[in-house]
């Protein structure tokens, strides 16, 4: 039997690569004949993983992390018809049965059958059904015929693997953020956050034809990278109000579309610099988005935040100026991205050179054994997206 190793959360601020069980085609005590086992080709570190590693969720020690998975099929269940051994596939981070009412509507991020506690599930994530994560050498994927996206040409896919590995989460999430914000040809867009999801959203806005893509952040290194592929940027540490900085770029202090790629661990700026302010981005969104505009929130907000400074925030209750959003007739779009809604189209965009997402998010490939170093570097704010190569299969 092959051995397996995975990245485990062992306590706040700490992960470790440990030997873990080799996956089985099983769900508890019963066979999972609709599943497959993958040899992982690429698995990425996500900002959502960092929330858990920082101790800002109720994640239990020992959780095997990782929901951004690309791999080769090495074993299939009896009921798998269309996926074959040897296929190279992208795994949506949402686990979906394909059979419930929500899945039939395309709402695969809130499948009703894969999590006993609430709608929606994901690999290696707190409160998301207890599924084993994919920052490992091997992983089991259920409902394979429904969930998996097969790459049509394996050799071509390996040549573009650093782009295609983004299809499991970050690129569809950024694209969904842009679509839900109403981005279209000629749009003026503000993206809060220049981390990997923010950069993926920016690249997606360009793909959709936005006229101006403005990215705001406190991290100048990340902003410099956003400028490298054509974004305008706002450094929130310079003391100038955001509205004024937007007016300097587009002539008026408002935008058509707003995308929140920060989430609940947001920090204040200006007079509130250095203070954690979990609602600041949402309130900023309502202030600078034009009346009738759309506000998209792919940034993560949680129901429980044990590390929050305020008691209300520990229960996911935030102080937002909802009356302002109501008065301006804003539309708010939240929740997990339904990856399957977009991943095939985005695969085609990658394969036909319409988007260079690996460059946009500044990919760096690391070994599985260097995962802890990758987490530490990512947490320090480097302008990179770390891709773990467990088997040394990626040419770089």
From TrEMBL:
Ranges for domain Alcohol dehydrogenase-like N-terminal: 34-152
Ranges of residues in domain Alcohol dehydrogenase-like C-terminal: 196-265
InterPro entries with a match to the protein in the record: ADH-like_C, ADH-like_N, ADH_Zn_CS, GroES-like_sf, HCHO_DH_non_GSH, NAD(P)-bd_dom_sf
Pfam family, any one: ADH_zinc_N
GO molecular function: formaldehyde dehydrogenase (NAD+) activity; zinc ion binding
Known EC number: 1.2.1.46
Metal-binding keyword on record: yes
Top-level EC class as recorded in UniProt: oxidoreductase
Keywords for the protein's UniProt record, in alphabetical order: Metal-binding, NAD, Oxidoreductase, Zinc
Family stated for the protein in its record: Belongs to the zinc-containing alcohol dehydrogenase family.
CDD domains in the record: PFDH_like
Cofactor(s) the protein needs: Zn(2+)
Annotated organism of origin: Gelidibacter salicanalis
Name of the featured protein: Formaldehyde dehydrogenase, glutathione-independent
Keyword Zinc: yes
């Amino acid at each position: 039997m092959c051995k397996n190793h995975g990245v485990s959360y062992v306590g706040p601020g700490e992960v470790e690569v440990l030997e873990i069980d080799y996956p089985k085609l099983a769900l508890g005590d019963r066979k999972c004949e609709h599943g497959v086992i993958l040899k992982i080709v690429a698995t990425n570190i996500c900002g959502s993983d960092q929330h858990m590693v920082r101790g800002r969720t109720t994640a239990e020690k020992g959780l095997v992390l990782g929901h951004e998975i690309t791999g080769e099929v090495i074993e299939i269940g009896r009921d798998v018809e269309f996926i074959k051994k040897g296929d190279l596939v992208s795994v949506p981070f949402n686990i979906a049965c394909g059979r419930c009412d929500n899945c039939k509507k395309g709402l695969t991020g809130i499948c009703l059958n894969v999590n006993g506690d609430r709608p929606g599930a994901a690999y290696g994530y707190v409160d998301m059904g207890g599924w084993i994560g994919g920052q490992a050498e091997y992983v089991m994927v259920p409902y394979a015929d429904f969930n998996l996206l097969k790459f049509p040409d394996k050799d071509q896919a390996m040549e573009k693997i650093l782009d295609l590995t983004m299809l499991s989460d970050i690129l569809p999430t950024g694209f969904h953020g842009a679509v839900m914000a109403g981005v279209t040809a000629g749009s003026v867009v503000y993206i809060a956050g220049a981390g990997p999801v923010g950069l993926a959203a920016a690249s997606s806005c360009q793909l959709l034809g936005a006229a101006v893509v403005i990215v705001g952040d406190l991290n100048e290194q990340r902003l410099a990278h956003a400028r490298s592929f054509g974004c305008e940027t706002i450094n929130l540490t310079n003391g100038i109000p955001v509205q004024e900085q937007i007016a300097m770029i587009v002539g008026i202090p408002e935008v058509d579309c707003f995308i929140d790629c920060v989430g609940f661990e947001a920090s204040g700026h200006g007079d509130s610099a250095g203070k954690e302010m979990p609602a600041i981005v949402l309130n900023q969104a309502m202030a600078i988005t034009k009346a009738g505009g759309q506000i998209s929130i792919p940034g993560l907000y949680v129901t429980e935040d044990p590390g929050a400074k305020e008691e209300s925030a520990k229960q996911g209750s935030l102080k937002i100026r909802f009356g302002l959003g109501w008065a301006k007739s804003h539309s708010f779009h939240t929740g997990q991205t339904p990856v399957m809604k977009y991943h095939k189209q985005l695969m085609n965009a990658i394969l036909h050179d319409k988007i260079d997402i690996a460059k946009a998010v500044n990919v760096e490939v690391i070994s599985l054994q260097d995962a802890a170093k990758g987490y530490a570097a990512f947490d320090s704010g480097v302008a990179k997206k770390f891709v773990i190569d467990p088997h040394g299969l990626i040419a770089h």
